Amino acid sequence: MNPKRRVALLSGDQQLHKHLELRLQSRDYQVVSLPEPSQVLGFIYSDPPDLVIIDLATPNVQFRTVLNELKQDSYFSVIPVIGLISEDAAEGIDWGQFPLDDFVSHPVHYPELFSRIQLSLQRLKRVFDNNPLTKLPGNTSIQQAIERALGKPRAVCYIDINNFKPYNDTYGFSRGDEVLRMVGRIMSNTVKETKEGGFAGHIGGDDFVFIIPLENVEQVCKTIIASFNIIVSDLFGDEEKERGHYLAKDRLGVVQKIPLLGISIAVVPTDNPLIQHAAKVVEVAAELKKMAKKSAESCYVIDRRRA
């Protein structure tokens, strides 16, 4: 059972406050009433709500001060704030002075307010789940996508970049981040081209996941590997490409031959009766990745066990 979403309600208008509270509670929101501006920041800092509704239609400059202080706080500024603004004032507002995430005109049209609350909460969930570097869906979305694929003729495919850490250490984080962004783009664009409702996500670091119909898996893996090999060609000089490695010092200062970047793709079909839950998908993928990494070149390995 999902916990109730907590909404902090900031309004000095007692009648409006009461109406809002009743309406929100009727939609199963847990409402925290904060009619006094002096109460607001202390409450939010000690027990942050999921969303704040602030009444800026009533002439109380202290609520505007609270809004600005909240949005200037680097930790709590992510809490969505919906403002109630008088209809005639909305057009002339300088939004730089009112750092809201959304607003609803006053008098309140409640169906619109509820829609904006839901959209704000969903947007916050996406922002927190998505990987900040590649902007791809993160672990929560990945877990849900895997669970939806179970028992269907689909494949969960894990991408791992071979020899990424020494490359990152040798050439620097900015070059490493660019490799991650490029892999994310290659993967997501290739998955989109299948036009079969595929999914692409970024677990973190050099670990990525995509989910596609099983019938497309070999072609998609080949396309991703071919595109990645083109990228690798631009990352190293002719001499390094000819040798198939570059020279770099390890942590002990000893010069080592480091293989060029490659990718391993572990493919786990989800229509396999042996795959009953997401944890099993992860377990099988880990085994397949070890097999794939034994290859000197980029490759994919498909789990073909059925019993």
Keywords:
307 residues, elongated, Alpha-Beta Plaits, 12 strands, alpha/beta, 10 helices, Rossmann fold, 5-stranded parallel β-sheet
Q: What topology does this entry show?
A:
Blueprint (H helix, E strand, L loop, with lengths): L5 E5 L3 H13 L3 E4 L3 H10 L4 E5 L5 H12 L8 E6 L15 E5 L3 H20 L9 H11 L4 E9 L1 H8 L1 H22 L4 E6 L2 E7 L3 H19 L2 H6 L1 E5 L5 E5 L2 E8 L8 H15 L6 E4 L5
Parallel strand pairs: 1-2, 1-3, 3-4, 4-5, 11-12
Antiparallel strand pairs: 6-8, 6-11, 7-8, 9-10
Helix pairs in contact: 2-3, 6-7, 7-8
Describe the structure.
The protein is 44% helix and 22% strand. With 307 residues, it is an alpha/beta fold. It folds into 2 domains: 6-129, Rossmann fold (3-Layer(aba) Sandwich), CATH 3.40.50.2300; 139-302, Alpha-Beta Plaits (2-Layer Sandwich). A 5-stranded parallel β-sheet has the order 2-1-3-4-5, sandwiched between helices. Helix 2 packs parallel to helix 3, helix 6 (164-171) crosses helix 7 and helix 7 packs antiparallel against helix 8.
Q: Over the alpha carbons, how many angstroms does the gyration radius reach?
A: 26 Å
Work out the helix count: 10
CATH topology annotation of the largest domain: Alpha-Beta Plaits
Give start-end ranges of low-pLDDT stretches. none
Strand content: 15-25%
Q: Which word captures the global form?
A: elongated
**If classified by CATH, what would the architecture of the largest domain be?**
2-Layer Sandwich
Mean pLDDT: 88
Query: How many domains make up the 3D coordinates?
Result: 2
